[in-house]
Amino acid sequence: MKILVALKQVPDTETKIKVAADGKSLDPADVKWITSPYDEYALEEAIRIKEGKGAEVMALSVGGDTAKDVLKNALALGADSAVLLKGDGQGDAFAVAQMIAAYAKDKGFDLILCGNKGLGGDNAAMGPMLAELLGVAQANVVVKLELGEGTFKAEREIEGGSEVVEGALPAVITAQKGLNEPRYASLKGIMAAKKKTIEELDAAAVTAGAQVSALALPPERPAGRLLQGDAPAQAQALLQALKDEAKVF
Amino acid sequence: MFPRFTDDQTAVRDAARDFAQSEIAPGAAARDASGEFAKDIFQQLGEMGFMGMTVPEAYGGAGVDFLSYILALEQVAYADASVAVAMSVNNSVACAPILAFGTEAQKQKYLKPLANGEVMGGFMLTEPDAGSDAAALKTRATRVEGGWKLNGAKAWITNGGVARYFVTMARTDPDKGKKGISAFILDASQPGVVMGRPEEKMGLRSSKTVMVALEDAFVPEDAILGKPGDGLKVAFGGLDGGRIGIAAQALGIAQRAMDESVAYAKARISFGKPIGEHQMIQTYLAEMEARLQAARLLVYRAASLKGAGRTCTVEAATAKLFTTESAVWICDRAVQIHGGYGYSREYTVERLYRDVRVTTIYEGTSEIQRMVIARELLK
Ligand SMILES: Cc1cc2nc3c(=O)[nH]c(=O)nc-3n(C[C@H](O)[C@H](O)[C@H](O)COP(=O)(O)OP(=O)(O)OC[C@H]3O[C@@H](n4cnc5c(N)ncnc54)[C@H](O)[C@@H]3O)c2cc1C
Ligand SMILES: Cc1cc2nc3c(=O)[nH]c(=O)nc-3n(C[C@H](O)[C@H](O)[C@H](O)COP(=O)(O)OP(=O)(O)OC[C@H]3O[C@@H](n4cnc5c(N)ncnc54)[C@H](O)[C@@H]3O)c2cc1C
Q: Are B242 and B235 in contact (CB under 8 A)?
């Protein structure tokens, strides 16, 4: 069985995001990059399948040189090989889906795993688009996955409940928190990963989907207000504010 | 520039830091309060290869160099010194002597599970009446059919009650003094090894330290480590490594105290400005940082020498003496900088102050380190 895991490099949630001078992209200075956590669930699932029934796991990322860290980490965690598709992996989900589809098309993957969305961008679009482009089945926001002989059974999170879908492989499955608990790389894995090479290819030329026209930070939060007076006066003022300004009552 | 780390060393340090910050640090204060042993964390540390770091892969270890181990230990100590001491004991004084003195069969049987994290290990040298003067130990090993029987009392045994195999020193010949001591690999899962209640310690609260009674504890023929009479050689063979390990533990604690103090000095206001703007606080911070940097270089240098297989008795003793004494002082200043809050359980420096105190005592007291250094100088 051949599994492809698509991994996106995203800014760490602790990074102080700054908008670049062009007003529509991220200022990459001081950004600490990490693997999108949803993609970590995808990778962990692939490795568990490999350990369980045996599989060959390939990790793939679309991005620049820094995205190699994501792939190195994937190799350390147990991926057998890694491919970097050099291209813009950040903005346009449709473009990324086309790049991955162009690469994966004739390679005989039985299963493609990715996160249900990229942390930060929150598009939740790449996986479904990839499945459509490849013309294969898909299940999204998956919290439980079982594989049969050429089939899959996936439990997915839906509003207010869960849904179980079954289908035939090959398929694209997008992972959600809860699918598994990702492991840490072992020292052995980290050392072994250093000996593996990352294949670097230029991403296919694609037609753009959406383009970011502007990027802005949320407005700064106004300063808090201190209520004055003794306790009854403060309670009175608070009640007033909740009624008149916040309109909670 | 020194130290210049290899890619491998940086990768190990980063992996340790990542795990320590995400998984070890968050529960440290709670474990300090409850005394609960961090079982799950050791399970994970074992799976990742941190319990037998310098042991070759063929024997279940991670096969990294000694400096990598020291860097990882420092990161773990930064997060929780109680976890670091158990990790240090497993690596430095359980795995290392078996790797150095064990037969192939012993390595397969005992070292593998210790290094791959299946079980934990410990070291039984100290006795109620034999601490610094280890050669005064009285535990007896008497010959019986198929092996030895051990009788006596061991004190201050780290990982007691949680570890399976202990490198244990006992007297095989009462008339031969130092030369009458032998080393054994003792399986603690037998009724003759009676673990006492964990000591109520000042710090390292979630590390288990116990008094052990050996009552006809059996050691089979093939579990003697080295030859009869080699006991102190085995016990002290890994001493340099152990000392550098404890120095690294102290270094991690001190770095944490430093970082906590800098953050506090920026945030706490007195007399209309952050206390970090008072000259006296700056003096403390500067002096703390100077000692910390000096200590770090001593530790890394001793570790590099050890990793290169060079003699490093003086360097290891110097690193331990200077780093642990400095770390105790740094944590004391950290409490001072925190004012009344440094005296409260709610602030991390209070725990660091208690945890760091033992580092000038175990794996050879500061007085013993001074003896070692002076002896080498006067040779
Ligand atoms: C938390 C903790 C964990 C430990 N874990 C282990 C373990 O896992 N295994 C193990 O075997 N032991 C362990 N120990 C024991 C530790 O190694 C001893 O406590 C240490 O060797 C000191 O021995 P002692 O406590 O008997 O002190 P003593 O030897 O009685 O020393 C008392 C004081 O006298 C000083 N002194 C002694 N002799 C001299 C001298 N010749 N010249 C000058 N000063 C001297 C000492 O430096 C010290 O200040 C642990 C101890 C602690 C506190
Ligand atoms: C156990 C305990 C019992 C107590 N009991 C009482 C009590 O009964 N009644 C009561 O009123 N208080 C009590 N206190 C409070 C105690 O007096 C204060 O903790 C003490 O005055 C220090 O104040 P602080 O903790 O706010 O530290 P801070 O004033 O915030 O000082 C923090 C650090 O900055 C230093 N610093 C501050 N200003 C300067 C400066 N200008 N130049 C140089 N360094 C400076 C301090 O020396 C200290 O090292 C108690 C405290 C404790 C811990």
A: no
In order of start, what are the domains of chain B with their CATH numbers?
Answer: 7-119 (1.10.540.10), 122-227 (2.40.110.10), 238-377 (1.20.140.10)
Residue B320's identity, in one-letter code, is K
CATH of domain A2-202: 3.40.50.620
pTM for this structure? 0.90
Q: Which of B275, B335, B344 to mutate to test the pocket of ligand 2 (most atoms within 8 A of CB)?
A: B275
- Could you tell me which of B68, B107, B369, B203 has the C-alpha nearest to residue A187? B68
B11–chain A Cβ distance below 8 A for any pair? yes
Among B118, B325, B363, B376, the one annotated catalytic: B363
For the complex shown, is ipTM > 0.95? no
Q: What is the pLDDT of residues B139-162, one digit of tens each?
A: 999 999 999 999 999 999 999 999
Q: How many CB atoms lie within 10 A of CB A197?
A: 9
- The 10s digit of each residue's pLDDT in A116-138 is 999 988 889 999 999 999 999 99
> Where do you find CATH 3.40.50.620 in chain A?
2-202
Span B252-266, pLDDT tens digits: 999 999 999 999 999
Please tell me the distance from the alpha carbon of residue B337 to that of residue A115, in angstroms, as a whole number.
Answer: 46
